[in-house]
Design goal:
Structural class: alpha+beta
Number of strands: 13
Shape: globular
Radius of gyration: 15 Å
Number of helices: 4
Order of helices and strands: EEEEHEHEEEHHEEEEE
């Protein structure tokens, strides 16, 4: 399935960091490892690596091996006066031309020639976003007209098939069988 926009679905930037830090430096490429995540990234592993999740239960499966954000979010928050660039919100993959937040759980994303990530859920934005830029949290977490919480800070996934990803790589989307399950926080 291709993206339903004029912009082709593609990778804009890739980022990783071997130490805990809110932001992640952009790279020329990253390598995804099946069942683990981004090679050399602090969040790679079979079990949870995010500090808050480790504190709750370090034996939980890591459903947050890869963090993806849509570049279009940067335009949206830019209209409110915020400057955000790839990697600055801690994502591993910055995309363009894909409605990441509208994908159902279980969607498979082929990134480049080989890598395949299964979408597990929404990123649950935390207060570190406000420490990065004061007021930005309100831009990426809001409520709809019915009062439902909207999380816009990207999605999370697990690596099904490893491979190297570079800026400019295409993204192919394979939806799971119906009925589709909307994304929830993971």
């Amino acid at each position: 399935m291709s993206a339903e926009s004029a912009v082709a679905a593609r990778v804009v930037a890739v980022s990783s960091n071997g130490v805990y830090s809110f932001t992640k430096p952009t790279r020329e490429s990253i390598t995804l490892l099946a069942g683990l995540g981004v090679e050399g990234d602090v969040h790679a592993g079979v079990t949870v690596k995010h500090r808050s999740r480790v504190a709750q239960d370090p034996t939980q499966p890591n459903l947050r091996q890869v963090h993806l954000i849509h570049r279009e979010l940067f335009d949206e928050v830019g209209e409110a006066g915020f400057e955000v660039e790839p990697g600055k919100l801690g994502e591993n993959v910055t995309t363009e031309g894909v409605d990441l937040l509208g994908l159902p759980a279980g969607t498979l994303l082929r990134l480049g020639a080989d890598a395949v990530v299964e979408v597990t859920g929404l990123r649950n934005p935390c207060l570190q976003i406000d420490a990065f830029q004061h007021g930005l949290l309100k831009q990426v977490v809001s409520r709809d007209d019915e009062g439902n919480l909207l999380r816009k800070a990207g999605i999370m996934g697990v690596v099904h098939q490893g491979g190297t990803i570079r800026p400019g790589d295409t993204i192919e989307i394979t939806l799971p069988p119906a009925p589709h399950v909307p994304l929830d926080r993971v």
